[in-house]
Specification:
By secondary structure, the chain is of the alpha/beta class. It is built from six helices and four strands; from the N terminus they run αβαβαββααα. The radius of gyration is 22 Å and the shape is globular.
């Protein structure tokens, strides 16, 4: 009888895990959380990631104040190669990207750095050269799509002559 009482929680746990595993798609998750960002930054980040079309998405992206970034880097034993600085890092086992909010340098910086962090996730490697190899492809996709969006947006804008004189 005591054995049966102990087995019930394990049975419930395994049934719950089996149900969750059937609904989970590995490698192609379409949802991830962005924490600590302004709505504008979150929208920019999500758009950049969408344009990059990474093979692996993070589970979460966290914009944190500098003190929290330093603490997280210390807790996860982040190794920064000599001569390099760190304003973003990826914790591979949790698929989390940490961004030092106090070091934010704009949309271009965010896209460039995020491509690198997504490269770490795609290769599942802590090696910077592995991440950069993939990041170059992501940056090409992002910049090509951004250029295409800008050029199609410019084609739909009236010229200054049409604005002043009206359409002919």
């Amino acid at each position: 009888m005591k054995l049966a009482i102990w087995l019930v929680p394990f049975f419930v746990f395994f049934v719950a895990i089996a149900g969750a595993a059937q609904n989970q798609t590995f490698g192609n998750d379409v949802t991830y959380t962005v924490q600590g960002a302004t709505p504008e930054r979150e929208a920019v980040l999500r758009h950049q990631i969408q344009l990059m079309q990474p093979s692996v998405l993070p589970y979460r992206v966290r914009f944190v104040p500098h003190w929290q970034y330093v603490y997280a880097a210390k807790m996860f034993k982040l190794h920064v190669p000599t001569g390099m600085g760190s304003k973003m890092f990826t914790h591979l086992s949790s698929r989390s990207v940490f961004i030092d909010e106090d070091c934010y340098l704009g949309e271009e910086w965010l896209g460039h750095g995020m491509a690198h962090e997504l490269g770490h996730l795609a290769t599942n490697s802590v090696k910077e050269e592995d991440a950069e190899r993939i990041a170059r492809e992501y940056r090409k996709r992002w910049q090509a799509a951004a250029k295409k969006t800008r050029s199609s947006g410019a084609a739909n804008q009236p010229s200054s002559q049409e604005t002043v004189l009206g359409p002919h």
